[in-house]
Amino acid sequence: MTKYIGPSNPTVKRCAHCRRWLKASAFRPNPRLRSGLNSWCRECAAERTRQWRAENPAYVGRVNVARRVKQRSKRCAVCGDDFVPTQRKDQECCSTECTRQLKARRERARRAASSRNKSKTHRRIKEVRP
Ligand SMILES: [Zn+2]
Ligand SMILES: [Zn+2]
Q1: pLDDT bracket for residue 62 (50, 70, 90)
Q2: Ligand 1 centroid to 17 CA: how many Å?
Q3: How many Å apart are CA 33 and CA 72, to the nearest integer?
Q4: pLDDT value at position 69?
Q5: In the chain, where are the structural domains located?
Q6: Residues around ligand 2, an ion, CB closer than 5 A
Q7: Ligand nearest to the CA of 41
Q8: What is the mean pLDDT of the segment spanning 100-116?
Q9: Residues 6+ apart with CB under 8 A from 69
């Protein structure tokens, strides 16, 4: 005689994929579902995730990059784009082009500042002279 186990027994659940009756603990909890458990057992869900990852390597890579960007992204000092510093921790720009622009900008600012100082010094010398 086989004992009937079905929906009336709350401790078991049938996997929608492999059709096995399994203990509730064999399913991952899913609060979004009315049953509170995933419709696929852990084994089937893991298998599906593995397969899906193998079939979508590009998407998985993008998701991982997006996660990394969220964690460690900085704003480019030149173009304002978010980027992940890869070369150095103190990297301020998203690309070598932006780094070049930032350097040029700083060089211009430095020259402007030094030429202002020079003209001040010059004036002072003039004033001191009789
Ligand atoms: Zn299953
Ligand atoms: Zn940039």
Answers
A1: confident
A2: 5
A3: 34
A4: 53
A5: 11-46, 56-130
A6: 76, 78-79, 93-94, 98
A7: 1
A8: 93
A9: 82, 83, 84
